[in-house]
Amino acid sequence: MADYKAVFFDAVGTLIHPEPSATHVYFEVGRRFGTRHTPDEIAVRFLQAFRQQEDLDRTQAWRTSEERELRRWRDIVGYVFDDVTERDSCFAELYTHFAQPTSWRLDSALELLVERIQQPGLILGLASNYDSRLRSVLAGFPILAKFQHVVISSEIGYRKPAPEFFRRLTDLTKSSPDKILYVGDDPVSDFEAARAAGLDAMLIEKPAGLKALGEKLAGA
Known about the structure:
The protein has two domains: 6-18 and 104-217, HAD superfamily/HAD-like (Rossmann fold, 3-Layer(aba) Sandwich); 22-102, DNA polymerase, domain 1 (Orthogonal Bundle), CATH 1.10.150. 48% of the residues lie in helices and 13% in strands. The chain has helices at 22-32, 39-59, 66-80, 87-97, 110-117, 133-138, 153-156, 163-173, 187-196, 210-217, and strands at 6-9, 16-18, 104-106, 123-128, 149-152, 180-184, 200-203. α1 (22-32) crosses α2. The longest helix is centred in the N-terminal third of the chain and has 21 residues, at 39-59. The two termini are 14 Å apart.
């Protein structure tokens, strides 16, 4: 770790995880609004909708904003629940749900990982594709106060895998890309994109996750 000036972590899927799962939440909320889709159907439709939005963002060079993220999730919910009449209300409930820290669990290995890698002068940060709701989520986990920087795609105008997203990390830390380690769970948007931008990167090994990473960084 002495080779790095900063370590940034992805959020969803790396440090925090929806609890209960997103599929479960979508099914329970959708059912109250009259959907007939099964959990398996919802999972498939969600993935299809998400990929459609990714394709759209790709054509826009991965530019984003608060308005764009709101529209993204509204469109995803509308696609998933095409058989629901009160889609706006259904969307509002889901959107609010994932803004609450109680809807998420912190990776159980994070505290030990932070203890292992923290050293004088090392900057810890969080950098994620999300919107302003992430700040209310993070506020519910005191250990995340140890992270000096929080970079959210909707606030900086670009989302991963755009190189501009990772350039923000170098600007914040005033360091060269090779002095920053980026840690995430997505092989493309986290690992490959960070490396393409000149950063070093580590991919979370599932299902071991942060625990395996902590052991690796500690030389265990």
